[in-house]
Amino acid sequence: MTSISQSALATAPIYEAGPKDPWWRHAVIYQIYPRSFADANGDGIGDLPGITSRLDHLQKLGVDAIWLSPFFQSPQKDAGYDVSDYRAVDPLFGDLDDFDAMLKRAHELGLRVIVDLVPNHSSDQHEWFQAALAAAPGSPERERYMFRDGKGANGSQPPNDWKSVFGGRAWTRVTEADGSPGQWYLHLFDSSQPDFNWENPEVRAYFEDVLRFWLDRGVDGFRVDVAHGMIKADGLPDWDAEQAMIAKGDTPAGTPLEELEGDDEPDEDTAPGDGNEGPMWDQDGVHDIYRAWNRVLADYPDDRALAGEAWVHDLERMARYVRSDEMQQTFNFSYLTSKWDAQHLREVVTESLDAFGSVGAPSTWVLSNHDVVRHASRLGLPVPGSLPKGIAADDAQPDERLGLQRARAATLFMLGLPGSSYLYQGEELGLPEHTSLPDDVRQDPGFFRTKGAETGRDGCRVPIPWDPDAPAYGFNETGESWLPQPAGWRKYAASAQYGDPHSTFELYRSMLRLRKEHELGTGSLAWVEAGLEGADAQNSVAFVNGDVLVVLNLEGTPVSLPKGAEVLVSSGELEIKDDVTNVPARTAVWAKLG
Ligand code: GLC
Ligand code: CA
Hints:
Blueprint: E1 2-4, E2 28-32, H1 48-53, H2 55-61, E3 65-68, E4 72-73, E5 85-89, H3 96-108, E6 112-117, H4 127-134, E7 147-148, E8 171-175, E9 181-186, H5 201-217, E10 221-224, H6 257-260, H7 286-298, E11 305-308, H8 315-319, E12 329-330, H9 333-336, H10 342-357, E13 364-366, H11 375-378, H12 400-415, E14 420-424, H13 445-449, H14 494-497, H15 504-517, E15 526-527, E16 532-533, E17 540-545, E18 548-553, E19 559-560, E20 566-570, E21 575-577, E22 580-583, E23 587-592
Parallel strand pairs: 1-19, 2-3, 2-14, 3-6, 6-10, 10-11, 11-12, 13-14
Antiparallel strand pairs: 1-16, 4-5, 7-9, 8-9, 15-17, 17-18, 18-23, 19-22, 20-23, 21-22
Helix pairs in contact: 5-7
The chain binds alpha-D-glucopyranose (GLC) and calcium ion.
């Protein structure tokens, strides 16, 4: 049994309550993955009219804003992160009128709307890249991308040894207009995603126009894709480390629990450069771009915001993206990759609040997105919280029940933290990863470029179940679905959860309502670890935010709440004995202090 002493509740905060404005300092932002949210025309791929038709679900849930993954014109080689026209809606998703209607409806419902901006690379079908292919080496058309001559006899070797994040090398050789083997172009991702040359002022001017195009239509901001990749080190020095969106050092998948302790020392597998360090990431020059964009947004009223996707491991480097004249937010991937371990969680939260606080920015928090295994499944793995690159049918399978139990607790803990939080569509339904997709339906380029060594991200992108008994669980009316939905998802369907007090949807709804009522998003944080007493105390973590005590019991014996604490919401059932409330393992609670 672990208890919390009254005296410990009076510990000084390590983080003080911040300003209530602007909205992005505390917003809960819900990520919509358009191809999998709702499909209005029944072709099996979600679309903008589908989103509009389901916005009431999000209003009911109580989020403040939505972020839409790309719906722009694209050959869909990387599910829309390969944009061929930044100012057009892909016909798969509808058209600009559908976008305007969606935006209008969202604003009527009080939801802000952030769209995805993909500035590191375009699609190879972008008119600029097509023009570059048709033009000669050294031409202004080629200067918009990263073309270089090859090395070796006849330039047959790539210009350097960089690898693609999706596997294989980061260079592809082109055939010149006269049919001869030609220059090479850089692509940090798929060969269909050539990297722009951000040293070229024409590229900078182009993207400022793109920003204005969407700001003029009324969007509230942008999520900036691969925000740490746009500038490459001078001379493109060799760097042959394997690339990964998530540094291996963050949470080695499948590592035995005992080895998770004290693995901060880089070992052979996690040497610097592994994952997201190297001459292509986090170069100081990227910050000039964000300072310029900050000025573009400042021309518009109503606090528009930029949220950077920068997979930068070091939190202090990460905080540089949100200095007051740059972006407003950056995703906290250190939090997403944190282990299911009280000590580690406490450290990551403290470091995040310190690092972001030192530049006057709020922290953000996130547990799931379209690039990682859903947290309800990650937390059900033999090493809870490990982060494999997808889960296939012949891999160790997550425990669905334990995973969901831990996920609900993890989310309750997260939403109690001061700052802004991101939710990924479906997590409010408790949705697990699809872990048995057949290989022949997979679409993630990472799966193909690694020849299946990486399962990839399709398992977290499966269309949402809305109604238990409708075709495709109500994703549309035809039953088509671009990825098959698993059998057994009836119980996760939204309409089956509305009004059921034990459902994950109603839990999320209560959390979001109480979070507002108690102003937790702009609140403070004081750890009560010193007050956690008992042999098993290291398995729990607790803090006070304003008048709310947040307790997360990860795996330990029950934690008893101090007398007089009134439970506001809990992620699972509590034990009440002799007037004392106990929080069992894998459970979190918010309690109001008297
Ligand atoms: C970002 C996106 C990911 C995409 C990649 C390349 O990391 O989140 O989905 O594949 O960029 O654009
Ligand atoms: Ca559709």
